[in-house]
């Protein structure tokens, strides 16, 4: 795993390239390299050596014909079979980077559609003076770009772009999305003229009359094109197919020239990945979990029991809530923009533990979105019921007068209009669209495009629409961002076998009756797992991997709230009206409205970020 940064702007210097690239040293501590030409192209790379540890695999890497130079962050798992597309080629390395470059040199952007893996790549054509950027189909690896019509730059993280352009103005539209979702979705970032590059796309950049010009950003892979007219309904056939696909995905993603292991929370997804890894690996698998000894729920004993059953080399880190809160000051520097997912903190801790023993860790991300692991899919079906729709306004009004315990469920009924249901269902704990109209001091944003239905080769149910929405936004811009930054803070590469393209293409066309059956979520995935680990090990409720945020806000995090959510700070930045923001704070601390704790956290993070970044 690595970090990439670069620009295609006349007037930038080689020193600026090095300074921007070196903000990413945590992503690649093993080596750094730079390519610079007077035409304004600069390509920088920081390397974390995973496959082919030799200096010959360092980057920037030149193609065999000398025409192309590449910087690349990621892993492509089918690179060995892709070598067959270049028979007779004299390979200089045994890794995937050279394969990606030489395929592009021979076939151009068409080759991106053949890659099964996670990556962000920049390739410069010295002959045509054209730069091509591309990002993997799921958005596992990050890629940002800056473009204002005069300058163009890109990077694995926002901090490199901020190094090049330190006075970037804040994008207010992104703030509305953050308060609505607890993260900022593609293509927006917290800065104007800076964008998240869309997954499964590529773009070409050239310079004309001294200014960079971008081609249309073009898709080479998308979910829609892989949805078939029919679905897989035969359970026995589907189970056998899924088992074979999962075993192949995990085996591919264990390929490494450095030590590897798995995150093991004791839940379905991480246990499935770990169980398969223990079967296909030539060496004993190392597993990692944390034990929150004073938390609301401690799943470490379950993880330890599964590790013992599978015979892994298990490492467990006992921590207290205070240890988690000690990570809070790192939030802004790690994520670069407002980010509300508090499971980032335990993810940092388990990544730190894993990096003491391995350089690569496999995680279970992606299972919930593909196999209906969330209760939100049940809510999507409920809210599509005409009878509930007819009664939802009086029910919502009644819930507002009910005890605090019922208010969360009641809030689910309080959507502004049916066209905004997807983000409303997801963001039940956050600020709803009608609340933001009262809270924000500005307008000019809309959640309509965010909530559009996906057209496909077959009619999609409301649960399918909701799960595909989660893949496009929540998975890409929250969960994968969370794990990437938390792990790369400690120079740990994290891989996600459940997001292998073969797994994804299978799940897109699995009938939903095999995703949830008789009220059992992730049904088919569990059937594969239970052949490897007895079902009795999982006979317990599902818990999220986070912190007791309501308790933390009343205790360890309260000084943060008192420092950044004040009338003076709120009015200084002028993003929200002080009255409703401070009223929410008062209801939480003084009137026992516990259901408002996550909205309080989002307002605190926003103003904390503004105080640190906007002087």
UniProtKB/TrEMBL annotation:
Keywords: ATP-binding, Glutamine amidotransferase, Nucleotide-binding
EC number(s) stated in the UniProt entry for this protein: 6.3.5.4
Domain Glutamine amidotransferase type-2: 2-208
Gene3D superfamilies in UniProt: Glutamine Phosphoribosylpyrophosphate, subunit 1, domain 1 (3.60.20.10), HUPs (3.40.50.620)
Statement: the UniProt record of this protein carries the keyword ATP-binding: yes
Similarity field: Belongs to the asparagine synthetase family.
Stated name of the protein: asparagine synthase (glutamine-hydrolyzing)
Protein source organism: Flaviaesturariibacter amylovorans
């Amino acid at each position: 795993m690595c970090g990439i940064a670069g620009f295609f702007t006349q007037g930038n210097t080689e020193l600026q390239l090095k300074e921007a690239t070196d903000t990413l040293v945590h992503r690649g501590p093993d080596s750094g390299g730079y390519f610079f030409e007077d035409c304004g192209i600069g390509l920088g790379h920081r390397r974390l050596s995973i496959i082919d540890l030799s200096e010959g695999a360092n980057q920037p890497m030149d193609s065999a014909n000398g025409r192309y130079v590449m910087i690349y962050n990621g892993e492509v798992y089918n690179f060995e079979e892709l070598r067959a597309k270049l028979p007779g080629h004299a390979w200089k390395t045994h890794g995937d980077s050279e394969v990606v470059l030489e395929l592009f040199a021979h076939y151009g952007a068409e080759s991106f559609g053949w890659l099964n893996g996670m990556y962000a790549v920049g390739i410069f054509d010295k002959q045509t003076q054209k730069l091509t950027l591309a990002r993997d189909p799921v958005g596992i690896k990050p890629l940002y770009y800056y473009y204002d019509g005069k300058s163009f730059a890109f990077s694995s993280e926002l901090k490199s772009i901020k190094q090049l352009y330190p006075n970037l103005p804040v994008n207010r539209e992104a703030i509305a999305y953050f308060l609505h979702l607890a993260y900022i979705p593609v293509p927006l970032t917290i800065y104007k003229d800076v964008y998240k590059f869309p997954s499964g796309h590529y773009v070409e950049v050239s310079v004309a009359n001294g200014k960079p010009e971008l081609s249309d950003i073009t898709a080479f892979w998308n979910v829609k094109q892989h949805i078939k007219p029919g679905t897989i309904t035969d359970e026995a056939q589907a189970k056998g197919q899924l088992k074979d696909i999962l075993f192949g995905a995990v085996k591919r993603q264990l390929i490494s020239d450095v030590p590897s292991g798995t995150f093991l929370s004791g839940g379905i997804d991480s246990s499935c990945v770990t169980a398969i890894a223990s079967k296909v690996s030539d060496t004993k698998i190392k597993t990692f979990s944390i034990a929150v000894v004073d938390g609301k729920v401690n799943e470490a004993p379950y993880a330890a029991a599964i590790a013992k059953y599978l015979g892994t080399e298990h490492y467990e880190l006992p921590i207290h809530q205070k240890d988690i809160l000690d990570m809070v000051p790192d939030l802004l520097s790690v994520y670069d923009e407002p980010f509300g997912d508090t499971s980032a903190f335990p993810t940092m801790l388990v990544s730190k533990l894993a990096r003491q023993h391995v350089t690569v860790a496999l995680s279970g991300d992606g299972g919930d979105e593909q196999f209906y692991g969330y209760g939100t899919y049940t809510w999507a079906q409920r809210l599509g019921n005409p009878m509930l729709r007819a009664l939802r306004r009086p029910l919502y009004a009644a819930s507002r007068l009910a005890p605090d315990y019922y208010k969360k469920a009641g809030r689910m009924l309080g959507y502004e209009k049916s066209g905004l249901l997807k983000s409303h269902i997801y963001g039940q704990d956050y600020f709803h669209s009608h609340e933001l109209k009262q809270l924000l001091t500005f307008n000019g944003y809309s959640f309509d495009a965010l909530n559009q239905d996906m057209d496909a080769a077959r009619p999609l149910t409301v649960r399918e629409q909701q799960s595909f929405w989660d893949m496009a936004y929540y998975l890409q811009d929250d969960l994968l961002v969370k794990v990437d930054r938390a792990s790369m803070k400690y120079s740990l590469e994290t891989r996600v076998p459940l997001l292998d393209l073969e797994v994804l293409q299978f799940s897109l066309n699995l009938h939903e009756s095999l995703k949830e059956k008789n009220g059992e979520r992730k049904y088919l995935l569990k059937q594969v797992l239970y052949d490897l680990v007895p079902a009795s090990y999982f006979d317990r409720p599902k818990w999220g991997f986070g912190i007791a945020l309501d308790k933390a806000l009343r205790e360890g995090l309260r000084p943060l709230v008192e420092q950044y959510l004040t009338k003076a700070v709120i009015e200084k930045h002028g993003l929200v009206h002080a009255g409703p923001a401070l009223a929410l704070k008062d209801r939480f601390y003084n009137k026992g409205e516990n259901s408002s704790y996550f909205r309080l956290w989002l307002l605190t993070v926003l103003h904390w970020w503004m105080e640190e970044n906007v002087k």
